[in-house]
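Work Package 3 (structural annotation) set out to generate three-dimensional models for the target panel prioritized at the project kickoff. During this period the team completed the workflow that converts sequence records into discrete structure tokens, so that structures can be stored uniformly alongside our sequence database. As a representative example, we reproduce one entry of 149 residues exactly as it appears in the project archive.
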Amino acid sequence: MTSRRGPSAWLRGWFGRRRAHAAETLVLTDPIDERYHYGSISKHIAKFQIGQVVRHRVFAFRGIIFDVDPQFANSDEWYESIPEEVRPRKDQPFYHLFAENERTHYIAYVSEQNLVPDDSEMPLSHPDIPEWFDITGRGTYELKKHSTN
């Protein structure tokens, strides 16, 4: 017959053991996988905000931001498909845009270094914008409450 200890006894046992080993040196036995962020909080502060209209610094498209990643969060295949000479750093905010150019509408994933504010005041025509945003009387875009996660 095994005895069952309650949660408080288990916690006392666990933390008592940890205290006894606190003076031991911790040794990293496996290399750090830089693709993962081990419980850390990103310290990157986004320059642009959701609902802001931006344009690409180099390519002829503009769009509205609908999500922000504090640092790169797409696939390695996507990242490596960008030519190395123009590949952005991963350690910066990346923005999800309802993007458009003269020919089409699409969703873009763009690094902060490649975006600038769009002050043209020309309305956007991406078909997903009305589902996510309301246009205010000032002509700005406000995220609808049901679109937040």
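The mean pLDDT is 82.
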